[in-house]
Amino acid sequence: MGELRPSVLSVQQDRAAVYNDLKQAFLCFIKTRAEGPWRHAMAAAAPAFQALSDKIRSLIASCPAHAPLLSRLQDLERERLRMTLALYALQAPARLELFAWQQNDGSPLKAGQGCGCGSGDGHSRAAHQTQEPTEAEFRAAVRELTCGIEENTVAINDVLDEVRDIEDNDGSEDMSEARNGAPCDPSDAHTARTATQG
């Protein structure tokens, strides 16, 4: 029982590190337009998140009394990852001003120009022309994902508070670090909202 809190804390800190790696790779991609490191970061994140989920599943097996709580954390983290990747995929072409409605002449992306979705070398917006969102659709989607991530963060922190409460308060570990490690940076949400502004 006494190992539950530090174990969960460790997993959340590691999750935060993986999310930070993704964020830095994304920012690097936006700056350099080199898709290789960004795709590499996404590929590396998949097994890293899987390994961390496996650790929580092991805790669920060893602490059945708290299985519902830990399963809730798993569900929230799974949804967090889905929304985060969806937001990056939506933001990338907008941050690079590649949507037709961001072009002065309204022209589509030139052949071979990367769209930023990370789906492969030589991928261009030509493959997305039939599904490119309008500006209104883009802003609505960003708003929905951003609000979802913010709500998800609150829920993750609530779960971590419950984990803290079921432990004896005899340790020096501070759950605030795990709270901060919940992979949502409010500044990211603000950036998402203003991806095409300014």
Description:
- The protein is mostly helical and 198 residues long.
- It has one domain (4-101, 129-193).
- Helices cover 67% and strands 0% of the residues.
- It contains six helices and no strands.
- It has helices at 4-32, 35-62, 67-95, 135-165, 175-181, 186-193.
- Helix 1 (4-32) packs antiparallel against helix 2, helix 1 packs parallel to helix 5 and helix 3 (67-95) runs antiparallel to helix 4 (135-165).
- The termini are far apart.
- Residues 168-177 and 180-198 have low confidence and may be disordered.
- Residues 167-198 are annotated as: Disordered.
- It holds the Pfam family DNA_repr_REX1B.
Summary?
The protein is an all-alpha fold and 198 residues long. The protein has six helices and no strands.
Write the layout of secondary structure elements.
Elements: H1 4-32, H2 35-62, H3 67-95, H4 135-165, H5 175-181, H6 186-193
InterPro entries: REX1-B
Region (Disordered): 167-198
Keywords:
single chain; 198 residues; mainly alpha; 67% helix
Overall average pLDDT: 80
**Largest sheet geometry:** none
What does the radius of gyration come to?
A: 19 Å
Distance N terminus to C terminus? 51 Å
Count of helix runs: 6
Shape: elongated
- Give the count of structural domains: 1
Quaternary structure classification: single chain
Binned, the helix content reads 55-70%
β-strand amount? under 5%
What order do the SSEs take from the amino end to the carboxyl end, as H and E? HHHHHH
Structural class, by secondary structure, is mainly alpha
Number of strand elements? 0
**Which segments are poorly predicted (pLDDT under 50) over 5 or more consecutive residues?**
168-177, 180-198
Region (Disordered): 167-198
Pfam families: DNA_repr_REX1B
